[in-house]
Automatic annotation (TrEMBL), chains A, B:
Source species of the chain: Sphingomonas quercus
Pfam families referenced in this protein's UniProt entry, alphabetically: Esterase
Protein name, UniProt field: Esterase
UniProt keyword annotations, A-Z: Signal
Signal sequence coordinates: 1-20
PANTHER family recorded: DIACYLGLYCEROL ACYLTRANSFERASE_MYCOLYLTRANSFERASE AG85A (PTHR48098:SF1), ENTEROCHELIN ESTERASE-RELATED (PTHR48098)
CDD domains: E_set_Esterase_N (cd02858)
Amino acid sequence: MNRAMILMLGAAISSAPALAQGGAAAKEDFKPSSLNQPGQQYPQVNSQGYARFRIVAPDAKAVKVSLGLGGRGGTVLTKADDGSWVGTSEGPLDEGFHYYHLTVDGGTFNDPGTLNFYGSTRWESGIEIPARDADFYALKNVPHGHVQQVLFPSPSTGTQRRAFVYTPPGYDQDQGARYPVLYLQHGWGEDETAWSNQGHANLIMDNLIAAGKTRPFIIVMTYGMTNDIRPGSPGGLASFDIRPFQTVLLNELIPYVDGHFRTLADAPHRAMAGLSMGGFETKLIAPKNLDKFSAIGLLSGGTFSMEDVRATPDFRNKVKLVFVSFGSRELDRNRTNLPPGAPPSDPKANAEALKAAGINSVFYVSPDTAHEFLTWRRSLRELAPLLFRD
Amino acid sequence: MNRAMILMLGAAISSAPALAQGGAAAKEDFKPSSLNQPGQQYPQVNSQGYARFRIVAPDAKAVKVSLGLGGRGGTVLTKADDGSWVGTSEGPLDEGFHYYHLTVDGGTFNDPGTLNFYGSTRWESGIEIPARDADFYALKNVPHGHVQQVLFPSPSTGTQRRAFVYTPPGYDQDQGARYPVLYLQHGWGEDETAWSNQGHANLIMDNLIAAGKTRPFIIVMTYGMTNDIRPGSPGGLASFDIRPFQTVLLNELIPYVDGHFRTLADAPHRAMAGLSMGGFETKLIAPKNLDKFSAIGLLSGGTFSMEDVRATPDFRNKVKLVFVSFGSRELDRNRTNLPPGAPPSDPKANAEALKAAGINSVFYVSPDTAHEFLTWRRSLRELAPLLFRD
């Protein structure tokens, strides 16, 4: 694994939400976060993007929320008269989804008010700061596809492995239709639940399809590691090897999907994309297997240069799309809190060089977001309409 | 809602695992629970069914686990030299799945070591005490069905509602086959995730089908309430009304399922069953809608008497099966910790009266289990082979 990848993975661990002016009083129009557990009033979010937390722990000495300000270690809660601990972020958080957890008297716990999402190799608390463009991933009264949990045999790992498969609206009714497939990978510390739970990939597709903006296709999401990937663990990141996962994907999952779903089972109708570590995996696997994939998407997961093109035999004949995206905060080198995983070479210049060379290269930057899920939701919204345009 | 129902629902809230001899030293062969988060070493379970907990919270004053002994309020942890809190249940817990949570300095949190499951109207920690017969719900190298998340339009509630649909192995390959459907309801405080997550309904079916013990059929699981059901809340249990859910089920979900899945869309091929509150719902809905359902399953959710038979027009012509089950600890009136929801009349005598009257009545008791999920996993194992035998 190269150093850029290690750095990028590191960026995935720490969420670094941006702050507007500190010190300004938050507007008192707080509402429960959309990700709260049923009936729970906290955490709350206001119209400016401030987050307010309330944790009941009357005998605790200290309660802190990991989410808050870059470099300040989060939001420290203070004890109220009723035995609860309350606090508000010092400023607005970036729009979109954030992972977080509590530190209660030195122990790491989740906020009992909100739902959990798998990230950082644990189920973390999640909060949603409504985005200006939240409509594109909202649950709306449109025809909905299904998200299917499948368990597929994996002789290479000696297990039954899990994947989630999005089938678009209409899949069940028109028994004659066949569909292209996007293999879509999560980031480090996440798993096969991320793109549906945090990413709303199914709702993004439902809305795009209802608006006639994309061809309906299948999305397959599976766990992108075959070993224990916690930092410092045996078989962890330091010994990362793409081959075991590549075997699962190419020899086990793809045949299972083509055998159980009505796919168009050829390279022109198969794409691979991934976020962060999933982008690195995509770049390691797809260009070397152009008999299987014809489109490549790297979402905050590296860049594709002319050097990469030249290193890929038959690239011009077989690759129909190279899509590269980042959050704007990952690219702004003037910011002091630039994530350590910022791209080592200029990804925009690389994308333009490919385009100038006649390759279908698309570069997208998500405004005002970092290495977090709103970047990737928007990236999927941009990527989907570009895929499978035969 | 009658008093028996309120009592039964109360029983669903408190898990009351049984204890063998207290005081005996636990065997030191503890292993991580099968429900732990990836890589987590605690909680652990030994071969006798003792549970051991370890929580890191170096500055806490008191840490307690809600799971432990009936009437003693759980397992109190003690602080170890390394800042963690550790403790072992005073005796073996009942085999199977248990919900629990932590009390840390007066606050309610989940155990960061284990996965969460929706119960008691919150996502709770879960632990699995391996059952002697655990093989029937194990993940094995057999063909697996899929569990599909569907979002169906519900005009009556003005929402897009969620259901999970189990389609059996072979469903995708044989595009001509049509299947019967079981509508299977969760208990109070749970939701549509319970039967797959806690119940392993999909694995139970996969294993039964692989062994040739049941006809393959579809299972549909949806949320059985349309209002806020937390005790004391407006629109809560006290004002329980079956009609809104019945409208969702009969007028919205069933047409959606029959329109999107290859079902046998008639009463002989449609059954309804549920656990605890879901059993009460089944009894309220199915006998009054025998144009839609021909089999009825009450799992720790009430009994069916000759009086009920006489109150149901056309019962003998239309009902092909009445299945009633309980955990043995729910029936043993000699036990001092008998749950408050124990059946008001003798369910076994009721079942035998139906049988004597020529009705296909089956009564099942799960050995050594209470009002908990092993009772219901076993009940599904017993129920499935009896369904749709035309």
